Amino acid sequence: MKNNNWWNNIIPFLIITFMTTIHTAFSQENHTERVTMLVTFHLKAEQKDAFKKALKADKDGALKEKGNISMVLYEQKDKPNTLYLFERWENQTALDEHFTYAYAKDVLALNETALTAPMEILYLNDIAPLPKNEIKHPQASDTSVDLVVLFKVKDGMQQTFIKQFEKSIVKSRPEAGNIEFFFHTVPGDNTKFVLYERWRNQTALDFHFAQPYTIELFDVFKAALEEPIENYLNFITEVKQTYNE
What is the C-alpha R_g of the chain? Predict the structure, then answer.
């Protein structure tokens, strides 16, 4: 029993060390750059409520930390046992400090019993970051439509893909119905890209899809993507309240 308790206590430390080491390798030990992360959790059904409660406590605690820019917890619409944390930190030092708090350690400890597979961590490079005070959030009247898109791009098409998204960012963010529109490369894999977008309602998203620059983007998708765009779309819903609270 003592050996099991020792192992349970050391697991969160090992996970924190692994996460920090992986990111440091990508950032070349630069602790001054912003850190953006997409973390995916595949939950056991019977552990879902407990894990969601721990994740919400982690998010609520993080939002009070000086080094946090934003953190949002999502549930995938068509796969309710899949959760995402999309988070931004001022730098690696701020993220390292986050892992010292009890609410972060609680999530890491639950990983061993609540998940069907290890959590998936993607460190992202934001192509067009915004200052914290310019990042918009949903309003009370919004029925937001949110999605995260994980693209796999054919080798040789990367620069075409990036340039088209740079144009789309400039055009999409000023739309009245847009909340967030962020495009990312993935360090260590130059064929993988991640789009994170939020819209005030379905009408706003429909308007966006009808714009010429979005139609151009979808034409690029046909040529650049390994699979049809539909295979990469993940519609998500923000978790604002945890069950059984």
Answer: 19
Find out whether 145 and 202 touch, Cβ atoms under 8 Å.
Answer: yes
Per 3-state DSSP, what percentage of the chain is helix, strand, and coil (rounded to 5)?
45, 30, 25
DSSP string of 26-69, one letter each residue: HHTT-TTS-EEEEEEEEB-GGGHHHHHHHHHHHHHHHTTSTTEE
- Residue identified by tokens 């998708």 is 221
pLDDT in tens, 6-47: 444 544 444 444 454 444 444 444 567 999 999 999 999 999
The SS3 of residue 205 is: helix
Q: What is the pLDDT averaged over residues 156-166?
A: 97
Q: What is the DSSP letter of 199?
A: E
Closest CA to 241 of 29, 49, 17: 49
List of residues 6+ apart from 158 with CB closer than 8 A: 190, 191
pLDDT at residue 135 is higher than 90: yes
As separate numbers, helices (DSSP H) first and strands (DSSP E) second, the chain gives: 7, 8
Of 215, 64, 208, the residue nearest 147 (C-alpha): 208
Q: State whether residue 48 is helix, strand or coil.
A: helix
Residue found under tokens 């604002």: 240
Q: How many CA atoms lie within 13 A of 45 on its CB side?
A: 1
Q: How confident is the model at residue 112 (pLDDT cuts 50, 70, 90)?
A: confident
Residue corresponding to tokens 């978790």: 239
d(CA 109, CA 190): 32
